[in-house]
Amino acid sequence: MKTGSSNDAEAVKTQYSSSNGLNTRISFHDMYSTNKFGYSNWIFSNYEIPEGAKVLELGCGTGRMWAGHDDLIEKIGMLILSDLSEGMLSDAEKNLGERENVSYALVNIEDIPYEDDSFDVVIANSMLYHVPDIEKAIREVRRVLKKDGVFYCATYGERNFSDVLAEWMELGGESFKPNHNFTLQNGKKFLKTAFTDVEARVYEDSLRITNIDDLVDYLKSLVSLMAIADLPQERVREILSRHSLNGTIELPKEYGMFICR
After folding, report:
1. Is the residue at 188 inside a domain?
2. Which CATH number do you get for residue 143?
3. What are the DSSP calls for the chain, one per residue?
4. Could you read off the pLDDT of 170-225 as tens digits, one per residue?
5. pTM listed for this prediction
6. Domain total for the chain?
7. What is the pLDDT of residues 130-167, one digit of tens each?
């Protein structure tokens, strides 16, 4: 099933060509998320990775999520961190450094360059919704996983902060194209084409924003809300201020992950 246009793919490629926008988004969520356990910590708390396992992460980004998890990295037999962006891989290598059991690779999830039954664990967090052919990507994941392997893939839901903000800004049609290609609501149907056991887990969280300017900067980094960049900054601030209560803006977050066997 084809799920994205070539224009969408180019926009995503531009958004993730460097880590600048990604770092902006990560810092924003770190600052204003109400669940202080942290989404990345929660993701790692769900991993069950056996000693000596062979692990492939697809769409690793800057590799920042692995920082602080040296104990886990050390027990892994082989960890391949891969991405479609050379810039992201360069940052990942800088962040995690050279390690005997860690390598970095340029990989397209739709055409994974490894043999069948190669990995005990495959990870693809917050990236399947960007893939043009999701079903093909999932088949490739299943192919390179061992028969008893596990696939972890985090994603978001369809009633998230970006959808609410689009309503506030009265964006619609071409000005707001939410990426609901692979969500907590529809992801299972894709995964069930290759996996028999698919479990969904939800991370409880929200945003409580106390600085409108931080929110404005954050919005400019989102592909789905690029139309906001055409609005005068004061107009954006005015609209956001209407939804502020006692200097605080509350927004929903709907995040979670699938665990597939």
Report:
1. yes
2. 3.40.50.150
3. -B---HHHHHHHHHHTSSSHHHHHHHHHHHHHBS-TT-HHHHHHHH----TT-EEEEES-TTSGGGTT-HHHHHH-SEEEEEES-HHHHHHHHHHH--BTTEEEEE--GGG--S-TT-EEEEE--S-GGG-SBHHHHHHHHHHHEEEEEEEEEEEE-SS-HHHHHHHHTT--GGG-----SS-TTTHHHHHTTT-S-EEEEEEEEEEEE--HHHHHHHHTT-GGGGGGGGS-HHHHHHHHHHT-BTTBEEEEEEEEEEEE-
4. 887 767 778 899 999 999 999 999 999 999 999 999 999 999 999 988 887 777 67
5. 0.85
6. 1
7. 999 999 999 999 999 999 999 999 999 998 998 899 89
